[in-house]
Structure formats: C-alpha cells, structure tokens
Amino acid sequence: MTIEDFLRLLLRNALLLVLLTVLGAAAGYGFSYTKAPVYQASALGFVRGAAGSDPVNSTQGQYSKAQFFLPLFQTRAVGQTIVDELGLEASPDAVAGSLGTTLDPNAPIITVTARASSPEEASAIANASIEAVAAEAEKLEPGTGSQLVPYQTALTPGAPVSPDRIRYAAVGAAAGLLAAMALAVLRNRNDSRLRTVDQLADEVNVPVLGVLPDVKDFSRPKSGILPEPKTFQAREALRKFRTNLRFVDVDNPPRSIVVTSSAPAEGKSVVSGNLSRVIAGTGQPTLLIDADLRRPLVAKQFGLDGSVGLSQLLAGAVSVEDVVQPIPGTRLSVLPAGQIPPNPSELLGSRRMHELIKELSRTHFVVIDAPPVLAVTDAQLLSRHADGAVLVAVTGRTRVEGLRRAIDSIHNVSGKVFGVVLNRASTSRLKRIAYGDAEYGYSAYGYGSKRYAYGSAAGLETGPEAELEVPDDVISAPVPETLAADEDPATEHGHRARGGKRAAAPDEDGRK
C-alpha cells in the first residue's frame, strides 16, 4: 500500500476515525476522574552561615552545607518527625518520598516541594519538612553554627496537579485514532465490495458499458411507477450506455439483450426499463420483456396490467398480439411476466422461448429483464437465447467475487456477457477522490478510454477519431438478416458462435 493509498483509506474512513478519536478522548478524560487528586505545595528554606565568619568563606560554607541538607529530606527520620508532628496516617517512608528538593544556583536557598492527597496536608508537610531537616542536622552535627531556617512558607494550593486530565484525554484520543486506523485497514483488506470503475475493469475484466449516477431519476418511488428521467445527468448517462451497447459488436450490433445482476436488489429492473426507454427514444421499435417469472416488476413500473403475459404465451394459451402492450406516444412496448408459473426455469429454457426472442428481435430491439444470476438459473438460460447479457452492479453493494461467479455462470452455458453497467454511482467528487477514481462518474468516461467498451470490447482504434460523438439514432441501424428457422440457435446471427472465435476482419486488401 502506497502513501497515497493509505491517505485515501483514511479519507474513506474519516467518520470512523473522528468517531473513535472523540470516543477515545472522552474515555481518557473520564478515566482521569478515577484517579485520586494530588496537590503540590512548595516552601523555601535558607541556609544561614555561622556568625562572625568571613563573608567569602561563609558563602562557600553555606552552599556546602546546603548540599549536606538536601539528602536529609528523603530520610526516614525526617519522615517520622513530620508524621509525629502533623499526626499523619501515612508511613514515614511515604511522606519522605513525597518530598522533592532543588537548590537555587544563585543563593543558598532550598526549595522543598511536597505532594499529598489534600491541599492542606501538602502545605503542612512542606512547611514541617524544613524544621524537621534542621532538627535532624543539629542532631548529626551539633554546634556547627550553620542552620536551615524557614524563608518562605508554603501556600495552600487551589487545584490539584494530578491527574492531568488534558494529558489523559490526549492519550485516549491517540489510542482511539490508532484503533480506528487499524480497523480501517482491516476493513479495507476484507472488503470485497465493488467501489470504482477501475476496480470493475481490472478485477472483473469486463467492459464497463455505462455508469448511472445515484440520482432521484433512477429511483423507483413508493408507487412503483418508474419515472421518466428528466435531468441532464440521468439522460446523458443513459445515452452513453445505449451508445456503448451499440459498439459491443460494430459489425453485428445486438438485437436482443438480457439485463440481469449477480444478486437481488441491485436495480436491474430499473436499468432495463430506462434502457428500453432511451432506445425507443431514437425511433427504434423496442420491446421490454419481463422474464423475471418469480418477482416480476416491469408491469408495475409502467402502470400496466401484468396478469397475462410471458408465462401464458410460452404455455401456448395466448398469442403475442394478446399480451404485448404498447406504451402510448412512444416506440416502446412491454411484454409482462404474466401469472407466476410453478416451473419458470423450464419455460424460460424452452425452445419456444428461443424462437420467441428470435421472432421478436426481427422487428424490435428486445430487452429482457431477468432474475439475478446467482439466485436461480433463469438468466443463464435466457443468455443462450439472446445475443448477450448485461450485468448490473452497484457501488458499495455488489461483491466482486459474486460478480465474477455470475459472469462465469453465463460463460459456462455458452452465453455471452457484453459488459457491466455500474448503477447508483456516487456523484460526490470527494467520494471519487477517496476511492482513487478521479473519473468515477457518468460524465467522465469517453471514447477511447481503455476501461470502456469502445476500445477493449469492440477492438476499435483509440485516439482523436474516437472522441467524435455518435448520433442518437445509431442504435436504429437496420436489423440484420436472421438465419433460417432450422439453424442451430447456438450459431444464430453468425457472429455469436458460442465458444468460437469471431470471424477475422478483412485487411486492407480485402483478404480475411
């Protein structure tokens, strides 16, 4: 992990870092109240020289005597004298150990500092210690003439010197920050969710056909009716998705696609509905088939009656004309799922379903809304009937490994995956920076970018030519001639030979 990656990791987990740091500081500050307060008081003692001595020699003698007095403050005898005088409950060693001394370098003055659990006791010990040392020195060297006398008595302290609550809070904040950083690294290491376009292209190794922003236009309201995209962001994202889909195979554009996802609740029904609308908006007759015979949503999204539809059609109970419902004022028609059957997989994998898609794709661009790949086998079966499949992935939700398994599942039945559309992509620039994806957005990807279908999937040249905008009606290219009805569905349209290679493009001399 580089420094840049680490900084992005911290940015992604900024809330966690702030939260744990604040909690750590609060915990440290609160913990300081469990510690007994300690008060500190200081008194001054003056070392007086012997009377009648030479001033120069007297000063030197005072400093020499002060050096003699200093160790006496920490003796048990002095501690015992203080305990007896003040009537303390503490031991003589504890009292003597609470004393600290310093000698003034410019004058024979000793500063005595005492610590105790109460302010009165601290000042009393400091004052008593000077007299106790003077008495002990007189016992050791009586009649020397030099004496330690009180110079300045200790005042009663107003506030404790310990615990240092700010210090405890700082230590707690540092501990919380370190814990948050460790948790962020652990989460990042174990997080397999899809985050960026680059991650999708690099780790899943499929073309990114589109990036749909997380905007209100792409959200299904409580009523269930899918709103018409109004904003420029939403419409532009759909147009780019449509154009990319047109370029997945330049010579043989797809006429039928399956829209699915690896797991439920990733927005594949909303994507299929909006894709159908934008294709129909170019004037291309478009048919949206609800092939999710387990949890159908398409009819409700368009406010249609979905009681009769695909399931009855495959069972031979109705005709196509009976179940296809056109959307007024558009070139879009909808084939609802109909009644939920007991055997969805058998119906969707039947020869009748293959023939139905083949027949409808002659006059319409067919979009098939299919169940999630990893939940049931329906999408796999449908991918064999259609020209290919598009998988919907959601940033922050779709698991990379699950997406790989879904793609492999389609490939295992000789199906074709055109690519992935990234749904609910954040429009926040801060989030894009945090995940190291500066171009993470519907307005950033363009022709010639290696991570999109133009160059990587279609084998197109990248460069200035690729920057030209493709007209909106490009998806309305003439429908290619279909093969005879008795041809093997595995080789329909010629260019879709399952498991085989595409025909080589002619070179400059026209040779293949």
TrEMBL record:
Region (Disordered): 472-512
Keyword RNA-binding among record annotations: no
Segments crossing the lipid bilayer: none
Pfam families: ParA
Molecular function via GO: ATP binding
Coiled coil stretches, renumbered: none
The protein's name in its UniProt record: Capsular biosynthesis protein
